[in-house]
């Protein structure tokens, strides 16, 4: 994790962040790889999608549907929220307060999303092992 944080700090000045913040296209893209892996029936691949975002999600309905569909696949999604934006929607996607449902009411098979607000951890000092 420390290496990911350091890489983020180094890259941030070189990256232009922009909106809108649409998650469903990338979730669906990774889900296609997970679907292909599932069809091989070897259980040898698992996909973890890391999304680092500084904004409020703009395709919530489509994202909920993409996550519900992906919940059947060998994949998980980690969303890291950076900055001071309102991340209420990310908490909803996380599914800790109840099973995520698509806009049609279809529930996720399992909780595959973990949301982490970076601001809660950015000043935490490392504890000795």
Automatic annotation (TrEMBL):
Name this polypeptide is given: Copine C-terminal domain-containing protein
Parts forming coiled coils: none
Domain Copine C-terminal: 1-123
InterPro entries assigned to the protein according to its UniProt record, in alphabetical order: Copine, Copine_C, vWFA_dom_sf
């Amino acid at each position: 994790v420390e290496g990911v944080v350091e890489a983020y700090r180094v890259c941030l000045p070189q990256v232009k962040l922009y909106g809108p913040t649409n998650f469903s296209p990338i979730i669906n893209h990774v889900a296609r790889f997970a679907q292909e892996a599932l069809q091989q029936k070897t259980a040898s691949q698992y996909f973890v999608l890391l999304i680092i975002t500084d904004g409020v999600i703009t395709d919530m309905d489509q994202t909920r549907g993409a996550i519900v569909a992906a919940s059947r696949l060998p994949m998980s999604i980690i969303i890291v929220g950076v900055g001071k934006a309102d991340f209420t929607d990310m908490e909803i996607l996380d599914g800790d307060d109840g099973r995520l449902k698509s806009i049609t009411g279809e529930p996720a098979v399992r909780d595959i999303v973990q949301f982490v607000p970076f601001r809660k951890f950015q000043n935490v000092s490392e504890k000795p092992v």
